[in-house]
Amino acid sequence: MAWLLELVPPEYRRYGVLRRYPIVLARMARNHLDANVEAARLGYRTARTELAAAVPPHGIEAVLEAYRREGARLAALAAAAELVETALRGPDVPGDPDYRRRFTPKL
Question: Which of 1, 40, 55, 84 has the fewest Cβ atoms nearer than 10 Å?
Answer without folding.
Answer: 1
